[in-house]
Amino acid sequence: MGFRVPVAEMHTAQSLARSAKIPRPQADVLSAAFDAAAAVRRLLAHHDEAVGDALLRQEVMAGVGNVFKSEVCFVAGVHPFCRVASLTPQQAQDLIAAARQLLAANVLQDSGDTVVTYGGRRRRTTHASNPAASLWVYGRAGEPCRRCGEPIRRRLQGPDARVTFWCPRCQTLPDAAEVDG
After folding, report:
1. Long-range pairs of 21-29 with CB within 8 A, sequence gap ≥ 24
2. What is the DSSP string of 94-155?
3. What backbone torsions phi and psi does residue 153 show, to the nearest 5 degrees?
4. Fewest beta carbons within 10 Å, which of 34, 54, 77, 80?
5. Pairwise CA distance, residues 2 & 121, whole Å
6. How many folded domains does the chain comprise?
7. With left for phi above 0 and alpha for psi between -120 and 50, is residue 42 left, alpha or beta?
8. CA–CA separation, 137 vs 176, rounded Å?
9. Global pTM?
10. Is 139 part of any domain?
11. For the segment 13-46, what is each residue's pLDDT rounded down to a tens digit?
């Protein structure tokens, strides 16, 4: 899905294979060829970036969009504004695992090659049966955290000023780990 796409590029199979901008199947979080260990290495290579920004990089892990960026960070217990350099190897692995789990739970793949991503009320990261309780943090600024009751925070992040949501109690920020912005 795209919003306000001013220019679209068309590719042949050969030009697609040569393009450095197009994520490889090993980076596609829903691909059978996804390589989690390589995704961890690609994530950790962005050491000076905020975790939330790095998760949106399709060459790190293709498929994570803005909603899932906030949800993945919450599920992994990682503050989205901390520097990637502050992550432990286990936290990086937890982020990758959470992304795979949440995205896989939010797609419907038919018997062919068609993949439909759930949106709106059908999108779900919690296991609550109530449709109004489908997401942990995204879109819930000022509302109580579903785990601890602390008010969810909201802030713009990165060069594209994408909105990010997090719980300041469940997702603590390591000392001196925050990226300015």
Report:
1. 23/58, 23/59, 23/62, 27/58, 27/59, 27/60, 27/61, 27/62, 28/62, 28/63, 29/61, 29/62, 29/63, 29/64, 29/99, 29/100, 29/103, 29/104
2. HHHHHHHHHHHTTEEE-SSS-EEE--GGG--SS--SSGGG--SSTT-TTSBPTTT-PBPEEE
3. -105, 160
4. 77
5. 19
6. 1
7. alpha
8. 24
9. 0.77
10. yes
11. 666 555 555 555 567 787 888 899 999 999 999 9
- The verdict on residue 4 lying in a domain is no
Domain-located, residue 125: yes
Answer yes or no: are the C-beta atoms of 172 and 81 closer than 8 Å.
no
Q: Which residues, listed in sequence order, are joined to residue 157 by a DSSP beta bridge?
A: 162
Measured between alpha carbons, how far is residue 28 from residues 32, 35, 46, 90, 137 in Å? 9, 9, 18, 21, 24
Give the confidence band of 114 by pLDDT, cuts at 50, 70, 90. very low
Domain with residue 139: its CATH number is 1.10.8.50
Angle between helices 36-44 and 89-104 (to 10 degrees): 120
Biggest alpha carbon–alpha carbon distance for the chain: 52
Question: Tokens for 91?
Answer: 């936290």
- Domain of 44 in residue numbering reads as 24-166
